[in-house]
Design a protein that fits this description.
about 25% helix, binds uracil
């Protein structure tokens, strides 16, 4: 890949800033100074350094964020803070993006990555990737609500949801866990709305079998661990 792209993707600055580093002679490839941004390098077998710092190449980044309310699941917005505004520059240069969407007021687990193939599979309607939410509700759920979720709910003139799981998390049934395998716009809120219940707060707690790391405060993120990455890729590679 191009030398300037590699260095930029690894968090050393924008392509413009990296060109300056190259111009100043701060970049070495296999211990020889290289000043050409367009030079082709193979990071798997060549040693690239900026000053004394080794450029550690990661083909793709995979992050888990605990999304706060009030932030939108987008890469750029004129008006609102986006989840991309919350990540370090190195990930912005690496062009990570949210894998799927959570509403502005929804909190919890959001994966960000720059692996387009992974995102495509994770969001494919054919994959039926499981998502689990904790919902605080305006009215309590009961056997009828649970049965309606199990049977699928008509949320549009021409759309009925697949069977979904619903479990009460408190004694009264005002807090519930919802499990869905689709990702229609405002799906959870619309499912409850169809039964006359308003969602007061919504948090995603699991995505594709991975639980939200509760040590992450809202707005914080970390890289997926190798074990988490294995869970996701195994799950997504199945047809
Ligand atoms: N369902 C919703 O209604 N909102 C979300 O953010 C996610 C699922």
């Amino acid at each position: 890949m191009r030398l300037d792209k590699l260095i930029s993707n690894c968090g050393f600055g924008s392509r413009k800033e990296v060109k300056e580093l190259l111009k100043k002679g701060l970049v070495t490839v296999d211990d020889a100074v290289c000043k050409r941004p367009e030079a082709q390098v193979d990071p798997s077998c060549q040693r690239v350094c900026v000053g004394d710092v080794l450029v550690e190449y990661e083909k793709y980044s995979y992050l888990m964020m605990n999304k706060p309310a009030g932030v939108i699941s987008a890469t750029f917005d004129e008006e609102h803070t986006t989840v991309l505004d919350l990540v370090a520059e190195r990930y912005q240069y690496a062009q990570v993006f949210p894998v799927g969407r959570l509403d502005k007021d929804t909190t919890g687990l959001l994966i960000l990555s720059n692996d387009g193939g992974f995102a495509h599979r994770a969001l494919s309607p054919k994959k039926h990737v499981e998502k689990v939410y904790r919902a605080e509700l305006s009215a309590h759920i009961d056997k009828t609500t649970i049965k309606a979720f199990e049977e699928g709910i008509k949320i549009d003139d021409d759309f009925t949801t697949m069977p979904a799981g619903l479990i009460a998390l408190d004694d009264e049934g005002f807090v519930a866990q919802v499990t869905i395998r689709e990702g229609k716009f405002h799906q959870v809120k619309r499912m409850f709305e169809a039964l006359g219940i308003k969602v007061l707060a919504l948090k995603r707690t699991h995505f594709a079998g991975i639980p939200l790391d509760e040590n992450l405060a809202q707005g914080e993120y970390r890289r997926l661990t190798d074990d988490e990455l294995k869970i996701v890729s195994n799950l997504l590679s199945k047809d």
